[in-house]
Amino acid sequence: MLTTRISIDDQRWRSARREAVDAVAGPHDQVYAAHFLFWDAVTVAELAAWQRPTDPLLADALWAAGAVVLCGEQMSAATVEILTSPCTAAGLLL
């Protein structure tokens, strides 16, 4: 996952991530919802990697997968593809 996440153009990732943050915030603009989800992803990344702290890009890839699972229907197909590519490259299905 980490290798794929590192290989994604940073500008493309940031753009997709912004769209995902807006989707996770929902219609009531709960702006902190995406940040809470990220910190949950950090915990999962640390457990998965047996490393604390872990690489923030690994947590970001897990966050992206979680955001797509929660709100993917509110995101463009291109954004979903970008955000799920680290997981799919690792053989994980969402």
Task: Describe the protein in words.
The protein is mainly alpha-helical and 94 residues long. The protein contains five helices and no strands. The radius of gyration is 12 Å and the shape is globular. The mean pLDDT is 89.
Which features does this protein show?
94 residues, mainly alpha, 5 helices, 0% strand, globular
Number of beta strands: 0
Strand content: under 5%
Q: What's the end-to-end separation, in Å?
A: 13 Å
Count of individual helical segments: 5
Report the principal-axis shape.
globular
Biggest sheet character: none
Radius of gyration using CA atoms only: 12 Å
List the secondary-structure elements in sequence, H or E: HHHHH
Q: List the uncertain runs.
A: none
Q: What is the overall pLDDT average?
A: 89
What fraction, in percent, of the residue positions are helical? over 70%
Oligomer: single chain
**Helix-strand category:** mainly alpha
List the helices and strands and how they pair.
Layout: H1 2-7, H2 10-25, H3 32-49, H4 56-71, H5 77-89
Helix pairs in contact: 2-3, 2-4, 2-5, 3-4, 4-5
Short description:
The chain is mainly α and 94 residues long.
